[in-house]
Amino acid sequence: MSHDLLIQGGSVIDGSGAPARGADVAIKGDRIVAIGSELGGASETIDARGLVVSPGFIDPHTHYDAQWCWDPVLTSSAWHGVTSVVMGNCGVGIAPC
């Protein structure tokens, strides 16, 4: 099977609570299609030796209500692996501005 992306040699933390394990991750389109070893070829390969490979993280309590106006990628969260944020949950909203 030819994958779009193969992330090789990282320490995989899958979010299940299981300990990290060395494995490769194969991606086709927008889906993870295999985790393991000897997963075949890919159009693009990333060497993840010495790195952690994990799903994105959700930050359920942020104060980004205004910051998203000037920082659309919410940089400080993105630097830490956050892929989704919940905004407006603590009364710091700038609406209707």
CATH class of the largest domain: Mainly Beta
Structural class: mainly beta
Tell me the number of strands.
Answer: 7
The gross shape turns out to be: elongated
Supply the number of helical segments. Answer: 1
Measured by DSSP, the beta-strand proportion falls in 35-45%
Order of helices and strands: EEEEEEHE
Q: What does the average pLDDT come to?
A: 85
Biggest sheet: strands, sense, closure? Answer: 5 strands, mixed
Find the CATH topology of the largest domain.
Urease, subunit C, domain 1
Give the total of domains: 2
Q: Based on the structure given, which CATH architecture of the largest domain is correct? A: Roll
Which residue ranges are poorly predicted, with pLDDT under 50 across at least 5 consecutive positions? Answer: none
Distance between the termini: 51 Å
User: What would you give as the CATH superfamily of the largest domain?
Assistant: Urease, subunit C, domain 1
Q: Report Rg.
A: 17 Å
Helical content stands at: under 10%
Describe the model:
This protein is mainly β and 97 residues long. The chain folds into two domains: 3-53, Urease, subunit C, domain 1 (Roll), CATH 2.30.40; 56-97, no CATH class. 5% of the residues lie in helices and 40% in strands. The protein has one helix spanning 75-79; strands at residues 3-12, 21-28, 31-36, 42-47, 52-53, 57-59, 82-85. Strands 1, 2, 3, 4 and 5 form a five-stranded mixed β-sheet that branches. A two-stranded parallel sheet has the order 6-7. Strand 2 (21-28) and strand 3 (31-36) form a beta hairpin. The protein starts with a strand and ends in a 12-residue tail after the last strand. The model has no long low-confidence stretch (mean pLDDT 85).
